[in-house]
């Protein structure tokens, strides 16, 4: 097995809906900050966007939009590999091979599958793709010999399943895959809904004041923050038990990179109105250059498509030799 000189990471994001502040602060910003720390591979996982009912034209448009978002926030395709999942056919091929060694019982125990299928009253409408989602995720990761997978706490179970699948394949067919480690992020890993801090921001949630989207106009951002849930207490402190306030302070801390102590000192004797105004100013200023870059990219779809094609070629150059190992190991070559 020929491995990269630096530890390799793999991260993916579904293209369904517009990216929100939780996506950016919890994942994308850190990806940008760590571009030179790891050998990084980033993927718009459009095949995962097909596990529930979808519109083909919308999927195509949103895949391009998410790719543009990743460029706009600062990912540099000369310093990382950035591509769309479906543009590298080895993902689907490896998924099938892994399906053949993955027990159904492992998949039925996945929390996200149980949660989503529980919400669907008609079992005939639950796709096999929804059940199989974690196997495709495992294929995404181990196809690139990834050592580290940065994830939020809600995805840790899927990375643990990836480890189980990779280890089982290695036991049965010989040493073929790197067994990756999850890396749970700290500050900013879980940005919660502004109107309901018990729920995460969501690209697909239609609650009007829950999520700040990357493309939101400044007035919309200010309005959503002004309406954000807090509590009846006065002191401004980083207290996880005060979920609404803690969420606002976390957003401010991740955007400004100020310490918790410095932020708390700044708001001694001040109220929630001061905090919300400052936070709105910080978010608007931070997103302004990202939004300008996004609009420029989306206005030039041919250039964007060429960049997507270049990223797919670079990803395929890594995936092909891994698939050659797999085919040999299982008797297909």
In a nutshell, what does this entry contain?
The protein is mainly α and 333 residues long. It has twelve helices and five strands. Helix 2 (56-73) links the parallel strand 2 and strand 3 (81-84).
CATH class of the largest domain: Alpha Beta
Strand-residue fraction?
5-15%
Number of helices: 12
Kindly report the CATH topology of the largest domain: Rossmann fold
Shape: globular
The class by helix and strand makeup works out as mainly alpha
Low-confidence stretches: none
Q: What is the chain-wise order of helices and strands?
A: EHEHEHHHHEHEHHHHH
Number of strands: 5
Would you give an account of this structure?
This protein has 333 residues and is mainly alpha-helical. It folds into two domains: 8-190 and 301-330, Rossmann fold (3-Layer(aba) Sandwich), CATH 3.40.50.620; 218-295, Tyrosyl-Transfer RNA Synthetase, CATH 1.10.240.10. Helix content is 52%, strand content 7%. The chain contains twelve helices and five strands. It has helices at 21-33, 56-73, 90-99, 104-108, 111-118, 128-142, 156-173, 218-226, 243-256, 260-266, 272-298, 301-330, and strands spanning 8-13, 39-44, 81-84, 148-151, 181-184. A three-stranded parallel β-sheet has the order 1-2-3. A two-stranded parallel ribbon has the order 4-5. Strand 2 (39-44), helix 2 (56-73) and strand 3 form a beta-alpha-beta unit. Helix 6 (128-142) packs across helix 7 (156-173). The protein is globular.
């Amino acid at each position: 097995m020929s491995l990269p000189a630096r530890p390799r990471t793999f991260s993916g994001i579904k293209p369904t809906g517009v990216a929100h502040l939780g996506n950016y602060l919890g994942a994308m910003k850190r990806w940008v900050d760590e571009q030179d720390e790891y050998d990084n591979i980033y993927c718009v996982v459009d095949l995962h966007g097909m596990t529930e009912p979808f519109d083909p034209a919308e999927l195509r448009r949103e895949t391009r939009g998410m790719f543009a978002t990743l460029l706009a926030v600062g990912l540099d395709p000369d310093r990382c590999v950035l591509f769309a999942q479906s543009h590298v056919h080895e993902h689907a091929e490896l998924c099938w091979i892994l399906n053949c060694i993955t027990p159904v019982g492992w998949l039925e125990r996945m929390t996200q599958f149980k949660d989503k299928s529980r919400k669907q009253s008609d079992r005939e409408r639950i796709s096999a793709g929804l059940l199989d989602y974690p196997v495709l995720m495992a294929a995404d990761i181990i196809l690139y010999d990834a050592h580290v997978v940065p994830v939020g706490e809600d995805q840790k179970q899927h990375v643990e399943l990836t480890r189980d699948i990779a280890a089982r394949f290695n036991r049965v067919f010989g040493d073929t895959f790197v067994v990756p480690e999850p890396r749970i992020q700290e500050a900013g890993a879980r940005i919660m809904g502004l109107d309901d801090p018990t729920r995460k921001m969501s690209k697909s949630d239609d609650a009007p004041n829950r999520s700040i989207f990357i493309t939101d106009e400044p007035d919309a951002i200010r309005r959503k923050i002004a309406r954000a849930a807090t509590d009846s207490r006065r002191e401004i402190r980083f207290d996880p038990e005060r979920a609404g306030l803690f969420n606002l302070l976390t957003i401010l801390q991740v955007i400004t990179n100020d310490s918790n102590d410095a932020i708390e000192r700044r708001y001694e004797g001040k109220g929630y109105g001061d905090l919300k105004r400052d936070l709105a100013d910080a978010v608007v200023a931070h997103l302004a250059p990202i939004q300008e870059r996004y609009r420029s990219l989306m206005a030039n779809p041919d250039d964007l498509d060429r960049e997507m094609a270049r990223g797919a070629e670079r990803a395929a150059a890594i995936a092909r030799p891994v698939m050659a190992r797999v085919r040999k190991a299982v008797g297909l070559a």
